[in-house]
């Protein structure tokens, strides 16, 4: 491989007018005669910037460096072999580094991105356009993470499978919570209101995934059915609490069959309407019996033989009440919520506690559905909600996010919260 064969030869020449009585110097760090200099060669040294493109996609701190050898390393820390050669005198300090050009590096990154995420484009024109978007997103992420290093942000970004998408494309395709008439009810459907017990002691930390109540992270692809993933996840948690059995429930079943309840397939929908469908249908299929296809307009193919779990109704939590949301998550299980995921920082979230000043709490700004599976506090005292997303395991913390808790209903985390009854 080219990268494996790449060797970096660094020629370090001395400062003029520096002399020494010893002409048999063995390292570049000792004064030398005007007619000698040392060549320091690294043995088959790989440049992290080129060899770790999946680290680009998973560890921006290690990837985006002005120094190809990364932070916290000096030149003297690199394995060296000193070779004595004769050379004419020079009058200034010169450093010659043989390396790839910036364009070569970007091309390698782009090729690795396409290979990692199996990206194929129909034309060369589209490939070039997507590459330009990728480079723009790459530079934005690098700039953001540099600011994080100086303490300007509470979270880190990284490139992921969505790095070839403009932000408005990303929002349009993936964020499918429909706000319009979100709390409207189907005929005969009356949800229950959550009543928080003032005497119930709430633990300081909860994570339902540690109890086996949360299924694996899924990817919705380019289907805007986040509401169906959040609905299925909440029902999986309630079914587990009742039976001790964790099932993967069918998101495609909800996409295909809840359209009479004003959901719109891959274009978007609402969790409450999904619960109403499951209640009236007397069940929802398992993922194995009714697998996800990520397509719109398919006929409803549910049959009782595909049954996995059912809901007898659902409960809504008062708008903006984070204390009630905390109580529900602590004592009852995962809760489906809608949030404002419109800031571009959401697209490339990697780790840390997400606090985005441009994020809004109002119902009118909610555009994405997720599952709250727990909460906790960071060592620095920052409270957070732990949410499970449906962007795949390559996004965030293995598909999860920590979002600011008790921060004035940040991003509307408690503006539209509900869970099913079983």
Automatic annotation (TrEMBL):
Residues 110-170 form the Cathepsin propeptide inhibitor domain. Keywords: Disulfide bond, Hydrolase, Protease, Signal, Thiol protease, Zymogen. It comes from the Eukaryota. Gene3D superfamilies: Cysteine proteinases. This is Cathepsin L. It holds the Pfam family Inhibitor_I29. Belongs to the peptidase C1 family. GO terms for molecular function: cysteine-type peptidase activity. Residues 202-421 form the Peptidase C1A papain C-terminal domain. It comes from Photinus pyralis (Common eastern firefly). One of its GO terms (biological process) is proteolysis. Residues 1-20 form the signal peptide. SUPFAM superfamilies: Cysteine proteinases.
């Amino acid at each position: 491989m080219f990268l494996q064969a790449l060797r970096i030869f660094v020629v370090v020449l001395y400062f003029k007018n520096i002399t020494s009585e010893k002409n048999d110097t063995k390292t570049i760090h000792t004064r030398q005669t005007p007619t000698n200099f040392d060549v320091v060669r690294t043995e088959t040294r790989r440049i992290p910037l080129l060899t770790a493109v999946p680290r680009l996609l998973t560890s921006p701190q290690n990837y985006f460096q002005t120094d190809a050898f990364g932070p916290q390393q000096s030149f003297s820390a690199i394995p060296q072999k000193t070779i004595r050669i004769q050379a004419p005198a020079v009058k200034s300090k010169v450093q010659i580094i043989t390396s790839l050009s910036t364009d070569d590096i970007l091309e390698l990154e782009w090729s690795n991105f396409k290979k990692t995420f199996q990206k194929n484009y129909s034309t060369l024109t589209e490939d070039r356009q997507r590459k330009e978007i990728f480079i723009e997103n790459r530079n934005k992420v690098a700039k953001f993470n540099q600011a994080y290093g100086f303490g300007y942000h509470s979270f880190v970004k990284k490139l992921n499978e969505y790095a070839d998408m403009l932000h408005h494309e990303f929002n349009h395709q993936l964020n499918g919570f429909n706000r319009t008439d979100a709390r409207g009810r189907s005929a005969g459907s009356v949800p229950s209101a959550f009543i928080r017990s003032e005497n119930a002691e709430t633990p300081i930390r909860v994570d339902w995934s540690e109890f086996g109540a949360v299924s694996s992270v899924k990817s919705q692809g380019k289907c805007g059915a986040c509401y169906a993933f959040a609905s299925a996840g909440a029902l999986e948690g309630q079914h587990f609490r009742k039976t001790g059995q964790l099932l993967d429930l069918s998101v495609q079943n909800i996409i295909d069959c809840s359209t009479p309840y004003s959901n719109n397939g891959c274009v978007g929908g609402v969790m409450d309407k999904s619960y109403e469908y499951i209640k009236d249908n007397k069940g929802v299929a398992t993922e194995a019996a009714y697998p996800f296809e990520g397509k719109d307009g398919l006929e409803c193919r549910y049959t009782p033989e595909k049954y996995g779990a059912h809901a007898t109704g659902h409960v809504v939590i008062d708008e903006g009440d984070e204390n009630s949301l905390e109580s529900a998550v602590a004592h009852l299980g995962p809760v489906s919520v809608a949030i404002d995921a419109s800031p571009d920082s959401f697209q490339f979230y990697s780790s840390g506690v997400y606090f985005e000043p441009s994020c809004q709490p109002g119902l009118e700004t909610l555009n994405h559905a997720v599952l709250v599976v727990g909460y906790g506090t960071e060592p620095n005292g920052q409270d957070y909600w732990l949410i499970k997303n449906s962007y795949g395991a390559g996004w965030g913390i293995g598909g999860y996010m920590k979002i600011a808790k008790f921060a004035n209903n940040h991003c509307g985390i408690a503006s539209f919260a509900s869970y099913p009854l079983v």
